[in-house]
């Protein structure tokens, strides 16, 4: 077992992880970044097209206060107002920090930022660099982290946080590149591991997005809130397979058709049509799919032909990428459907990004409470930058004051023995990927865009059966730790099953439609003043739910 020692361990190398690492390192702390894949490439940041922020003096009438109100309105009573206030008020300062590091945002001829409108925002306030804003930001952050000496471990899957009476003191991981277990001793840990798009068969997320951070936090004693709210990006490619889940932002200017040739948004939202909010678009497309009005690959059709050349220029990178895979958006109709996009709920944090477990901080998509019941477009990138920077700052302060913690070696050795036993299973009735595929089908059909009690109850039973089959009847390739794909699949699927069961539990409890959560048997939207947060903890490996009234807090 390799042993690494650092002041702060950051799990995840998206923008939240890199922002955390840079801020902590600048405060004199040693920092180690760990990622399941390649640093900067296994998170969702690289695919982000824009970032929302109010820059003083840019748009007459706009302000951080209005951005704050817009975000609360989208959250439908479930956003934590203190967190939203921080995000919107610190936005312009964080943009300035990014620019000082070398980030470049498109500007108009007068030198002011080019700002795009976005559904739900009162004013245009989305900054961008072409349609590769996320990639530009992650490249900037990665270069700065390398410059200031932040350590990086790639192909390392964190399987457990080491906890004790004094909180978190490190983590245990598997280095698949060098086939070795790793003990990381740390004074503080920042979870910035992103979402869980692999819950669904089609996702805009990379394959590493399996909800690991949520399960690590739950097992360490943290609380997860409002995970029944999952946002789907309505228009994503389903074919060719090489671009499965590819986001088509140009869709807001195009036209959607079913297999009968009907422009079906005329019956779902005749005023806004394809410019409707993401939840309405996703529900409309899902209904068309459920009714069988689909193409040969199970999707509806997007027609983005005949648009203004300026629109094509704005989405030039998407057009270039799709052309390389045999599709020309200027002349071809393409097959699309909603894809799992963003985990709106997540780990409960306070203004300092503390999780309630001493020494454990969290930032980015893995957290909950900021976006409430529905996330405004382009607020996600802002969230990762603002709270990533705060997590690094407060983790550094904590590490400076808490240097005497020792990692529990018995706990670490026990985890290594557990995974070593898994790696010696050999062939059994099922392979882990088969269990995962069945889980995704259940989530897609019964726990996704449109839900009902009967479907959720059925899903709960099926998921419990899958959990039993994973534990008793699923094998793992007996090749040790060296890039053992089936071992990784097993560990990730085990996490996904716990998370899926928790989502079903919360979805059953929430007998209403609110934001991104739509219950077909409870279609009426309940007022914001009656909002209740649903919190999940783990007891004996099973998710347990508690309600928390928010009336008064969110006013």
Structural write-up:
The protein is α/β, with parallel strands linked by helices and 555 residues long. The chain has 15 helices and 18 strands. It has helices at 15-26, 64-75, 81-89, 91-101, 133-147, 212-220, 265-268, 278-290, 309-314, 316-324, 379-401, 409-423, 432-446, 453-473, 485-509, and strands spanning 2-11, 31-34, 51-52, 126-127, 151-153, 156-164, 167-175, 180-191, 224-225, 230-237, 255-257, 300-303, 333-343, 346-348, 360-362, 367-368, 532-539, 542-549. The strands form four sheets. Strands 1, 2, 5, 6, 7, 8 and 15 form a seven-stranded mixed β-sheet that branches. Strands 16-14-9-17-18 form a five-stranded mixed β-sheet. A four-stranded antiparallel β-sheet has the order 10-13-12-11, with helices on one face. α14 (453-473) packs antiparallel against α15 (485-509). The chain is globular. The model has no long low-confidence stretch (mean pLDDT 93).
């Amino acid at each position: 077992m390799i042993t690494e020692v650092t002041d702060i361990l950051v799990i995840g190398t998206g923008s939240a992880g890199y922002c955390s690492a840079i801020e902590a390192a600048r405060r004199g702390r040693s920092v180690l970044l760990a990622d399941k894949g390649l640093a900067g490439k296994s998170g969702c940041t690289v695919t982000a097209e824009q970032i929302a922020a109010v820059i003083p003096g840019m748009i007459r009438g706009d302000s951080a206060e209005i951005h704050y109100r817009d975000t609360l309105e989208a959250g439908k009573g479930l956003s934590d107002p203190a967190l939203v206030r921080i995000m919107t008020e610190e936005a312009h300062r964080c943009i300035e920090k990014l620019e000082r590091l070398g980030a470049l945002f498109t500007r108009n001829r007068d030198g002011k930022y080019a700002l795009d409108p976005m559904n739900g925002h009162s004013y245009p306030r989305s900054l961008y660099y072409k349609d590769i804003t996320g990639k530009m930001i992650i490249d900037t952050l990665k270069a700065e982290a390398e410059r200031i000496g932040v350590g990086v471990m790639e192909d390392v899957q964190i399987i457990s946080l080491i906890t004790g009476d004094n909180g978190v003191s490190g983590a245990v991981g598997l280095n698949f590149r060098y086939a070795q277990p790793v003990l990381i001793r740390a004074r503080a840990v920042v979870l910035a591991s992103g979402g869980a798009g692999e819950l669904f068969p089609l996702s805009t997320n990379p394959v590493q997005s399996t909800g690991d951070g949520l399960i690590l936090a739950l097992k360490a004693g943290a609380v997860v809130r409002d995970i029944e709210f999952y946002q789907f990006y309505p228009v994503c490619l389903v074919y060719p397979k090489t671009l499965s889940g590819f986001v088509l932002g140009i869709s807001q200017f195009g036209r959607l058709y079913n297999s009968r040739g009907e422009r079906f948004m005329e019956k779902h939202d005749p005023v806004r049509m394809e410019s409707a909010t993401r939840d309405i678009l996703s529900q409309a497309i899902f209904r068309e799919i459920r009714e069988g009005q689909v193409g040969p690959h199970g999707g509806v059709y997007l027609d983005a032909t005949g648009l203004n050349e300026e629109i094509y220029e704005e989405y030039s990178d998407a057009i270039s990428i799709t052309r390389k895979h045999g599709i020309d958006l200027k002349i071809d109709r393409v097959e699309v459907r909603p894809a799992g996009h963003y985990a709106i709920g997540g780990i409960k944090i306070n203004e300092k990004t503390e999780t309630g477990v001493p020494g454990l901080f969290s930032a980015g998509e893995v957290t909950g409470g900021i976006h409430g019941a529905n996330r405004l477009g382009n607020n996600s990138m802002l969230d990762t930058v603002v709270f990533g920077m705060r997590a690094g700052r407060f983790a550094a302060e904590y590490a400076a004051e808490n240097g005497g913690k020792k990692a529990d070696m018995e706990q670490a050795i026990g985890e290594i023995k557990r995974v070593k036993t898994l790696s010696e299973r050999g062939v059994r009735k099922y392979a882990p990927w088969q269990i995962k595929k069945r889980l995704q089908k259940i989530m897609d059909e019964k726990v996704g865009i449109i839900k009902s009690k009967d479907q959720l109850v059925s899903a709960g039973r099926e998921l419990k059966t899958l959990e039993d089959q994973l534990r008793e009847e699923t094998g793992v390739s007996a090749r040790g730790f060296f890039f053992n794909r089936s071992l990784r699949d097993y560990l990730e699927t085990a996490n996904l099953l716990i998370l899926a069961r928790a989502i079903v539990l919360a979805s059953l409890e929430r007998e209403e439609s609110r934001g991104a959560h739509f219950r077909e048997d409870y279609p009426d939207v309940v007022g914001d003043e009656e909002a209740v947060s649903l919190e999940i903890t783990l007891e004996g490996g099973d998710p347990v739910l508690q309600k928390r009234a928010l009336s008064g807090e969110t006013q």
